Amino acid sequence: MIRSLVVLFVAMAGSLQAGVSLATEVFRNGSEIRIEAPISVLPVSGFLPLRVELRNEGTREMRWSLTCKSSYHERGMRARGGVGSDPITGEIVSRFAVSCPQREERSIDLLVPIHIRPDFTGGERIVTIEGSSKELNSSLSGSMAVEGLTYVFGVSQDLLGDLNDKIIHGLSGRGSSLYRATYASVIGGEIDPDQLPKDWRAYAGYDALALSHEDYLKQEQGVKLALDQWVRAGGNLILLAESDTAPEGFVPGARPNGLGHQSLLNCGPDFDDFDGNEFVELLRKSETSLVKIETEYSDYTWLVGTELGKRTLQKSFLLVALIVFAIVVGPINLFFWAGRNRRHRLFFTTPLISLVASVLLVGFIVFRDGFGGDGARAILMEVGGSDDKTAVILQEQFSRNGVLLTSGFTIDEQTVLVPVKAPSSDLNRFDSASGKGNFNLEISKTNEGWDVSGDLFQSRSENAQVLRSVVPSRERLQLISGTSKAPQMTSSFAYPLTQVFYTDKEGGVWMASSIEPGSTVTMTATQSKNPVEELAAPVSRFGQTNQRIIKQLLERKNSFAAIAGEAPGIESHPAIDWQESPTLITGLVSQ
Q1: 163 and 266 share a domain?
Q2: What is the pLDDT of residues 262-319, one digit of tens each?
Q3: How far apart are the C-alpha atoms of 331 and 350, rounded to whole Å?
Q4: Among 206, 260, 436, 557, which is disulfide-ready with 235 (CB 3.0 to 4.6 Å)?
Q5: How confident is the model at residue 422 (pLDDT cuts 50, 70, 90)?
Q6: Are residues 255 and 345 both part of a single domain?
Q7: pLDDT of 106 higher than 90
Q8: Could you count the other beta carbons within 10 Å of the beta carbon of residue 186?
Q9: Are 57 and 16 contained in the same domain?
Q10: Tally of structural domains, the chain
Q11: Interatomic CA distance for residues 146 and 40, integer angstroms
Q12: Looking at the DSSP assignment, which residues form a beta bridge with residue 433?
């Protein structure tokens, strides 16, 4: 419960060092390997950032093979199932290779894929690391673990002493707003500000990050860019300062060009004005929480999960098939084909009957379900303004698979993929109602991205995922000055846009039925229409949390919203035939 945050902060203030050291090995020749976690708590999903420090004092290259396992283990009696229920277990295995030339030092950042927690009933998630080096004839190991949790955030090391008493005061009573809002625990971890990664995906699984004003200012530009991209992709960044003065480029409030939120909390000198409840309210602005991940995609209010209809396993047919098989392989086989004086035929007829039955059953499955699978998805692309050369893609997808010849696929390295519970059905291998099931993955880093195999896409199953990516993009809508009062827009998108809405700086709404690539169109004023109402259908296909975010994007001034039928989505399993899914494109208008 909320009390767990209080206990953790008391512990951190007195004992934790900078970051978390998972493994260290020092050799006789002075060579060394250290593996540390810049944030001392496991994220909700996505990746755990790790930093590998190598020092090679030898005369040849030092190479290490690292195997990281992220697993979930339920402990004790299940809250819903009681005694005798199956425990939920799952494991994601990822492999990395790191090296350091002779007489050099290297610092390498790794992203370890993290296993999500399947339900609210408790349990433990563990990350273990095992490394080996043939050159040094050595090995090392380490681990991190965390009990069941919901809200996860990191806080700068130098803030711990100042925050400790304030957090306890703000969260210890039942009057706390977060206590009333959720029955699950809140876990805070320590951030080492000197080790923050330069990759936004390292922060994607955390509900919020809290940094001091000083820690933010001293970050390299690459770290600030990563934090900015994380906020654009839905992150929640909180700066704690002694005044209301924000750093250059840091705009408190909902992002003008993104899905996330960033805040500046004036705590006064020596944190005299810090309000624990206000800090908790800022935590609640997070949109990546496991609460939302677990509840929004497992029922039939999620339209993408219902667009393929409902299919059952035809259990009655399977029962009849088993009965027929039992009759044929039993009495018919025993008394007709291998009678009293022909018992030796059983050595041939029994396996032959089994083989024929298997072929017929496989043939029926292939005839009914086919190869590959069908999928539905909702896609949002959010583009920035004139100075921003990236776009954020948010994609929710659901697939019903037939026979898959392979479960493996390659996904772009800039993508964060989070498996979520699909609506309960006969084909759902991880049952949303009972919470039973296994989830295992094998992941390897390659030059093309991540090679993934395992339980993300299984034969004869239904699966769901939420994907986010920050991709390079110069596609924009640009406002062109004209002689009339009506604004003119030119498009640099590579595909046509339809149902284009533009909300100007005064809040006036303009529209165009379509804009072709490279063309300029004069917008038409409208008083009776607004983007939120006119684009309600594509917006409603997303989960509830993302619907709220998208509606906020549609209400911004100096912004546009449009539909694109040819915009690319995030590719995953190549055997899935995705239904046509027009992309909703939003963004600021370039000047």
Answers
A1: yes
A2: 888 888 776 667 766 777 777 766 665 555 666 788 777 889 988 888 776 666 767 7
A3: 12
A4: 260
A5: confident
A6: no
A7: yes
A8: 25
A9: yes
A10: 2
A11: 10
A12: none
Instruction: State whether 364 and 224 are in the same domain.
Output: no
What are the angstrom distances between the C-alpha of 226 and each of 159, 223, 233?
A: 22, 5, 10
Are 330 and 270 part of one and the same domain? Answer: no
Structural contact between residues 226 and 203, judged by C-beta atoms closer than 8 angstroms: yes
**What sections of 274-328 are H helices per DSSP?**
276-283, 290-295, 315-327
> Which two structure tokens, joined as six digits, stand for 366?
């292939």
Is 523 part of a structural domain of the chain?
no
Domain span at residue 85 reads 3-285
Q: Which amino acid is at 315?
A: K
> For residue 300, is it within any domain?
no
Spatial CA neighbour of 70 closest among 87, 54, 94, 44 = 94
What is the Cα–Cα distance from 211 to 231, expressed in whole angstroms?
Answer: 14
Indicate if 43 and 106 belong to the same structural domain.
Answer: yes
Place of tokens 């069941």: 148
Q: Which residues of 449-478 are buried (b: 16+ CB within 10 A; e: fewer)?
A: ebebebbbbbbbbbbbbbbbbbeebebbbe
DSSP result, 207-225: SEEEEEHHHHHTS-HHHHH
Dist. CA 534–CA 513, nearest whole Å: 12
- The sign of the CA dihedral 110, 115, 116, 117 is negative
> What is the tens place of the pLDDT at every residue in 196-223?
999 999 998 888 888 888 889 889 999 9
The CA-CA-CA angle for residues 32, 36, 40, to 5°, reads 160
In this structure, what token pair is assigned to residue 387?
Answer: 């100075």
Work out the angle at residue 533's Cα, subtended by the Cα atoms of residues 528 and 537, and round it to the nearest 5 degrees.
Answer: 140
Task: Judge whether 93 and 65 are in contact, CB under 8 Å.
Answer: no
Tell the burial category of 231 from Cβ atoms under 10 Å away from its Cβ (0-12, 13-18, 19+).
buried
Total residue length of the chain: 591
What is the torsional sign of CA 496, 500, 504, 510?
Answer: positive
Produce one character per residue of 88-117: b if its CB has 16 or more CB atoms within 10 Å, e if not. Answer: bbbbbbbebebebeeeeeeebebbbbbbbb
Last residue of a domain, one of 285, 304, 324: 285
Q: What is the dihedral of CA 408, 411, 416, 418, to 10 degrees?
A: -30
Instruction: Give me 512's structure tokens.
Output: 């165009």
Return the structure tokens found at 77: 């009696």
For helices 346-369 and 315-327, angle between their N-to-C axes, nearest 10 degrees: 160
From CA 17, how far away is CA 2, in angstroms rounded?
A: 24
Of 258 and 18, the one with more pLDDT: 258
